[in-house]
Amino acid sequence: MSDKYDVIVIGGGPAGYVAAIRCAQLGLNTACVESWINKQGKPALGGTCLNVGCIPSKALLESSQLYSDAKHHFGDHGIVVPSVTADVPKMIQSKDKIVQELTGGIEGLFKANKITWIKGTGSLLPDRQVEVTAHDNSKSIHSAGNVILATGSTSIEIAAVPLQGDVIVDSAGALDWESVPEKLCVIGAGVIGLELGSVWRRLGAEVVVLEAQDAFLPMVDDQIARDSLRQFSQQGLDIKLGARVMASSVNGDKVSIEYTDKDGEQQLQVDRVIVAVGRRSNISQLTLPETDLLIDERGLVHVNGACETNLPGVWAIGDLVRGPMLAHKGSEEGVAVAERIAGHQCHLNYDAIPSVIYTHPEISWVGKTEEQLKEEGANYKKGVFPFLASGRAKAMQDTAGMVKILADADSDAVLGMHIVGPHSSELIGHGVLTLEFEGTIEDIARTVFAHPTLSEAIHEAALGADGRAIHIPNRNR
Ligand code: FAD
Ligand code: AMP
After folding, report:
1. Which atom of ligand 2 is nearest to the CA of 158?
2. CA spacing 20 to 30 A to 476: which of 9, 58, 332, 430?
3. Are 10 and 130 in contact (CB under 8 A)?
4. Which ligand is nearest the CA of 47, by number?
5. pLDDT grade for 2, boundaries at 50, 70 and 90
6. Cα(261)–Cα(244) distance, rounded to whole angstroms?
7. Residue 366 exposure: Cα atoms within 13 Å on the Cβ side
């Protein structure tokens, strides 16, 4: 069978499905090829993000935080709960329901926008043709004026710790455990390792995180990373830096992990392991050698600033290409590419993409870190405001962390915002808008923030950059 679409998108994750919807909105006859089979054995849209990534992890982070609050913190507010128990299978069911509702919602949006969902695995052929292998192994060929590649990424596996049943799992496996391991080892103190380690720590596991690098969260502003590490240690996350995992073995119901650190070879006995050492792009089934699609040295599809590959009319977006592996980055690339295909001008500001680690406290940032500014030799100023001095954070009895704003000392332009603290994932939106609107410290200083809110800490940090914060003594006076 051969048919002709204006656009075929390969991959229905947050990059691909958003691209498909925007193409359809712009009047383009659009198809999306998606191969995902969900936990219930049914084809599903939404990709990693909706099925085994952003959404299910946030569902479990929310449930586990509520449990931990009820168990450890309600008493601080005068709420007496005689006994609190975690019904983990119910938590998993509740997470699965959220996932099913959201992925079903994307299917509904496809129908409403008249997007054809071609179920199966897509391979790019020359001349913007796409071969699809359906779940029953039948093959079909489709062609389009433009093809958008959005096949995303999967967890990296390491030979030293091969996955095994539900004992040694990747991030997807760690979202499905129906019981709490007594002792858990997380390999990799990146975003995913810290989030999933937090979930199981809150539910009662003893958690050891092994991280090969000496630096903790090297991409995060150092002051914020150091403060976060202190918070996590207080919560009982045992984060060992400079600890490279070399080997593992399963003995009965225990896993033995061998790692090296500055003191030499070490061993750890645990009940379960999460391997969270990063993600790699999905290119193996995407294209054939004769298609000549250019893959870069990191195994990513090579694209220019407009997400064009080396092949005319073939675009690539999301985790498949350079840039942070974040759902919102992929979605915005999807919108931008759809609009470019439809002949619109479009620009995506890669300098104003927020990052968030949804631990407690949450870590969020946008723009430059202080270390980057130092390296550039920039003439910068900074304002820092601790949540300990925020009336709202006090009322919430959740005062860990701070807001830090960095700005150009000459022009006053805000260059970066870094927040560790309650709901920082929501607060960072202020920083994103400030960068997007090329705002200054003075713009934030002259903005009225509601009292009492956590966002007042942003106001105070901006005031602090010029030595005029109200609720803390100013260092720069
Ligand atoms: P994916 O979401 O990976 O989607 C790609 C899709 O393509 C998949 O559905 C796959 O089945 C399909 N596919 C692959 N090959 C083919 C083929 N040949 N033919 C047809 N279909 C194919 N990001 C955030 O921004 N915020 C978060 O809070 C967050 N939390 C995360 C938590 C976890 C545990 C994980 C693992 C990731 C998290 N991420 C988060 C990252 C986020 O999930 C990814 O950045 C995002 O999903 C990338 O979107 P994508 O569309 O490029 O790829
Ligand atoms: P991220 O790429 O943010 O998901 O983080 C993955 C983390 O895993 C990185 O910080 C890596 O340094 C770390 N890592 C990779 N391989 C190993 C290993 N063998 N032992 C311990 N940590 C590792």
Report:
1. 19
2. 430
3. yes
4. 1
5. low
6. 7
7. 22
Instruction: Please check the confidence at residue 398 and state whether its pLDDT lies above 70.
Output: yes
Q: Is the dihedral of CA 133, 134, 138, 140 positive or negative?
A: negative
Which mutation among 170, 211, 266 tests ligand 2's pocket best, with the greatest number of atoms within 8 A of CB?
211
Q: What is the dihedral of CA 433, 435, 437, 442, to 10 degrees?
A: 100
The residue length of the chain stands at 477
- 451 catalytic? Reply is yes
Instruction: Check pLDDT > 60 for residue 445.
Output: yes
Helix residue ranges per DSSP H, 162-221: 191-202
Render the burial of 387-419: b for 16+ CB within 10 Å, e for the rest.
bebbebbeeeebbbbbbbbbbbeeebbbbbbbb
Give dist(CA 259, CA 212) in Å, integer: 9
Q: pLDDT tens digit string along 193-220?
A: 999 999 999 999 999 999 999 999 999 9
Q: Which residues does ligand 1 sit against, CB inside 6 Å?
A: 10-16, 33-36, 47-49, 53-54, 57, 121-122, 150-153, 171, 192, 282, 285-286, 318-320, 325-328, 330, 358
Q: Does the beta carbon of 212 sit less than 6 angstroms from any atom of ligand 2?
A: yes
CA separation for the pair 135, 118 (Å, rounded): 11
Q: How far is the CA of 476 from the centre of ligand 2 (A)?
A: 39
- What domains sit in the chain, N to C, each tagged with a CATH number? 2-155+280-348 (3.50.50.60), 168-277 (3.50.50.60), 352-465 (3.30.390.30)
Share of the chain above pLDDT 70, in %: 99
> Is the distance from the beta carbon of residue 210 to the nearest atom of ligand 2 less than 6 Å?
yes
Question: What pLDDT sits at residue 474?
Answer: 82
Give, using CA atoms, the residue closest to atom 45 of ligand 1: 326
pTM for the model: 0.97
Element (H, E) at 337: helix 327-341
Our answer on whether the CB atom of 311 is closer than 6 Å to any ligand 2 atom is no
pLDDT tens by residue, 71-83: 999 999 999 999 9
220 C-beta closer than 6 A to ligand 2 = no
Protein residue whose Cα sits closest to atom 4 of ligand 2: 278
